[in-house]
Description:
2 domains, single chain
Amino acid sequence: xxxxxxxxxxxxxxxxxxxxxxxxxxxxxxxxxxxxxxxxxxxxxxxxxxxxxxxxxxxxxxxxxxxxxxxxxxxxxxxxxxxxxxxxxxxxxxxxxxxxxxxxxxxxxxxxxxxxxxxxxxxxxxxxxxxxxxxxxxxxxxxxxxxxxxxxxxxxxxxxxxxxxxxxxxxxxxxxxxxxxxxxxxxxxxxxxxxxxxxxxxxxxxxxxxxxxxxxxxxxxxxxxxxxxxxxxxxxxxxxxxxxxxxxxxxxxxxxxxxxxxxxxxxxxxxxxxxxxxxxxxxxxxxxxxxxxxxxxxxxxxxxxxxxxxxxxx
Length: 314
Ligand code: SF4
Ligand code: SF4
């Protein structure tokens, strides 16, 4: 039996995906040209892996030689919980409050592919969630899931930007979805609100200045010139998404309970991090994206925030 767009849409919705769009295979010339410029400017900071597999990013047929269509999926992670804004605690980015999204989405993608293969055993796919040499955002935009906001996250007009993106490269030819218009218009709220001026121009984020990079992927120290500018973020930063009018207006609660905050993972007591052992770190953040920064990184972040706090109270 032939797999249709309708079958994929219904199956993915039954698995909990909120958004879906289809695009045709093309070489991502324009998008990789932007990536190249971004890399040349050094905006990837210490993320050297962004420099690797450039050709695969451009041409997904180097990943799946029979690639014909790309399916982009979105999964809402907005839970509606808000921060207490206790100055003794560091804020964690919304996406990392619950169970690691990779674990949740990988499982759903496996189920999706299994179901589609049951319908047509000749169906082939390679799946990605924010890992591997695939330009998820570029495909999401091409698939009409949303437009690229000036903060460089994809925005859906009915959901805002609090969603994860998964990409499925397939050997199937699906009907293509319509791309959507860029609805940022003259708004510059994200650029204006970024406390470190990391959005250097529309759609371009310099990771060297971005709190999200500096508190997660960054392996080094945090530049002292940024003291007092972190707004108490200990893991990630959501400011540019929080101020976006599309999120203010359209965020709705996810149905995925696993994205709800685990106790103590929404805001983390700074002094408790300073004294945390490796064992308790692994236990407290088991299956959480917070593991990514490792205890060393979390301690560095806590120390950075505490220094600022101590300086302002002395
Ligand atoms: S995540 Fe934070 S630091 Fe990074 S661009 Fe957005 S507002 Fe700026
Ligand atoms: S805050 Fe404004 S400019 Fe920034 S992504 Fe949202 S709509 Fe676009």
